[in-house]
Amino acid sequence: MVSEEKLKKVISEILKGYGENEESALLAADCLVKAEMRGISTHGTYLLIPMFQRVKGGMLDLPTKITLVKENNATSIIDGGNGLGQLAARKAMCISIEKAKKYDVALTLVRNTNNIGFLGYYSNFAAQEGMIGFVGCNAASSMAPWGSSEAFLGANPISISIPAKNKKSIVMDMSSSVVARGKIRKASRNKEEIPLGWAIDKEGNPTTDPNEALKGTLLPIAGPKGSALAIIVDIIAGMLSGSRFGLEVKTFHELEGATGVGAFCMAIDIKKFYDLDCFCSMVDSYICSIKNLKKVKNVTEVYLPGELEFISEQESREEGIKLDSKIIESLNDILEKLGSNLKLVHD
């Protein structure tokens, strides 16, 4: 187990070694640590490895320089400067929250950034401010549109967070594919099979081999519905923002050049539409109503979107963060290569 503060210190040290400034390194580290705490390891410390490769390859520009491209009353477009996606997405949601306080609803688009991590991190910023948060981003082609066997769409995740009064916020955070590609990469690294229904090989056949799946494509959730969702996210996050979309987006995990990821962050100020305290109380009651429904056989608890992740985060805070020994070795190797005296060890 590793403490939250220790892991954050190590990650920020690594990011500073990559060339990020101290303040921004701490902000990005917070996102990566939260991912680990919530059990979303594919969006956590593992990302430091491709970041290291991209910095060495001159394909990640640090320190991150975010610029305002265009701004109107309730809308903005920012350029992520091919830097850390965590910083660009955070900035975008902060802009939307501030604008929503004045204009009720606000939308900020992001162009020219990289992998932004898990989206619930940003949508929940809005919920913490008494707002509803929407976040979406596109990604490199890894999923075939419904009816095709050729990758064209990214997993293109989307997240929506809704605040409650005494309960935890409802945080929907999901990819448009049955599973994020990071889980297939993880299965490949661990030499494990993947379940049928996650992906197809390059010939369009169902496969349990993660390596064949990586050569093939992911499958969309609910068939044509997931495919449609991925298309819409790609158009808004990529096309509308002026970033890359479709086959133009490059993977963060191979040295193919700048990824060109696009994203969008929207905030809706609830109190401009409904009394905030009353609304959040109704969400509490809504959650309780769902919790009290009759359960199917062998199910003892009905969980709301994001609830399991909140539970995992709390356990991590109390007991420490579980980190794979291979990841610890990789991070210590990076620290050594950066000339740092820090070393990550289990508490």
Task: Report what the structure shows.
- One of its GO terms (molecular function) is oxidoreductase activity.
- This is Lactate dehydrogenase.
- This protein has 347 residues and is of the alpha+beta class.
- It folds into two domains: 1-63 and 310-347, Malate/L-lactate/L-sulpholactate dehydrogenase, four-helix barrel (Hypothetical Oxidoreductase Yiak, Chain: A, domain 1, Orthogonal Bundle), CATH 1.10.1530.10; 65-177 and 220-292, Malate/L-lactate/L-sulpholactate dehydrogenase, NADPH binding domain (Ribosomal Protein S8, Chain: A, domain 1), CATH 3.30.1370.60.
- 41% of the residues lie in helices and 14% in strands.
- It has eleven helices and nine strands.
- The protein has helices at residues 4-18, 22-37, 48-56, 85-103, 120-128, 181-189, 210-215, 224-240, 276-291, 307-319, 325-337, and strands at residues 67-71, 75-79, 105-113, 131-137, 158-162, 170-174, 199-200, 217-218, 261-269.
- Strands 1-2-3-9-4-5-6 form a seven-stranded mixed beta sheet, with helices on both faces. It has a two-stranded antiparallel sheet with strand order 7-8.
- Strand 1 (67-71) and strand 2 (75-79) form a beta hairpin.
- Helix 1 crosses helix 2.
- The chain is globular, with a radius of gyration of 20 Å.
Q: Care to give the gist of this entry?
A:
With 347 residues, this protein is of the alpha+beta class.
Give the biggest beta sheet.
7 strands, mixed
CATH T-level fold name of the largest domain: Ribosomal Protein S8, Chain: A, domain 1
CATH architecture of the largest domain: 2-Layer Sandwich
CATH class of the largest domain: Alpha Beta
- Tally of separate helices: 11
Low-confidence stretches: none
| CATH superfamily membership of the largest domain | Malate/L-lactate/L-sulpholactate dehydrogenase, NADPH binding domain
Organism: Candidatus Sediminicultor quintus
Protein name: Lactate dehydrogenase
Family: Belongs to the LDH2/MDH2 oxidoreductase family.
Keywords: Oxidoreductase
